[in-house]
């Protein structure tokens, strides 16, 4: 019971203290596995993790606070039915004391930006219909509920398949991909800002 209370306790920190890094190799794999095994209902084998992080390391990111891994996102991309180049968000985790502070939004938007820059036309994922936090987060990022999947998870819970469609370049020559930091998922000179991402989705 005491351990559960400790996990639920909100951590006080400044957003600038969170460090985001892309997957850097085998030393990051146990950190990702530990977070996912703790927080997600679906069990995954080490082969599943390696499938994602070895083939698409550029799509996986980790969040650290003072050296402690507090969040991660794991994704892939590829051809879907030989017609669409699609990104897919497989796992997203932020530990409970750090939720509600924009870390999940930052993780997801970093992956989405890489997918977009790699030529993806859309991004999909599944989320439990009971996971209101995740559904709200993805809704703020512009995802729509494309389909309901009955008893999708091993625990018998239904899922929504969520989809984000990228605007066509000829219609939107400048495509920002960072979400509003107040939401609860590397910037360089060519990377769009969070305000620009939010403005895009207000206009879609």
From TrEMBL:
CDD domains: NAT_SF. Residues 184-204 are annotated as: Disordered. The keyword Transferase applies. Signal peptide: none annotated. InterPro entries: Acyl_CoA_acyltransferase (IPR016181), GNAT_dom (IPR000182), NAA30-like (IPR044542). Residues 16-167 form the N-acetyltransferase domain. SUPFAM superfamilies: Acyl-CoA N-acyltransferases (Nat). Belongs to the acetyltransferase family. MAK3 subfamily. It holds the Pfam family Acetyltransf_1. GO terms for molecular function: protein-N-terminal amino-acid acetyltransferase activity. This is N-acetyltransferase domain-containing protein. One of its GO terms (cellular component) is NatC complex. Gene3D superfamilies: 3.40.630.30. Keywords: Acyltransferase, Transferase.
């Amino acid at each position: 019971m005491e351990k559960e209370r400790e996990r639920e306790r909100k951590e006080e920190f400044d957003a600038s203290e969170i460090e985001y890094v892309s997957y850097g190799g085998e030393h990051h794999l146990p950190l990702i596995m530990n977070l996912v095994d703790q927080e997600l209902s679906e069990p995954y084998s080490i082969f599943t993790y390696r499938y994602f992080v070895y083939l698409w390391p550029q799509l996986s990111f980790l969040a650290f606070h003072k050296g402690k891994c507090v969040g991660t996102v794991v994704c892939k991309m590829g051809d879907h039915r030989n017609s669409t180049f699609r990104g897919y968000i497989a796992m997203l985790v932020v530990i409970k004391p750090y939720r509600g502070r924009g870390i999940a939004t930052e993780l997801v938007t970093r992956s989405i930006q890489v997918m977009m820059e790699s030529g993806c036309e859309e991004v999909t994922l599944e989320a439990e219909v009971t996971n209101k936090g995740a559904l709200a987060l993805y809704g703020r990022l512009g995802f729509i509920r494309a389909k309901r999947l009955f008893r999708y998870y091993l625990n018998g819970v239904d899922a929504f398949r969520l989809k984000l469609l990228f605007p066509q370049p000829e219609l939107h020559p400048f495509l920002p991909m960072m979400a509003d930091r107040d939401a609860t998922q590397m910037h360089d000179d060519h990377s769009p800002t969070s305000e620009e991402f939010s403005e895009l989705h207000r206009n879609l």
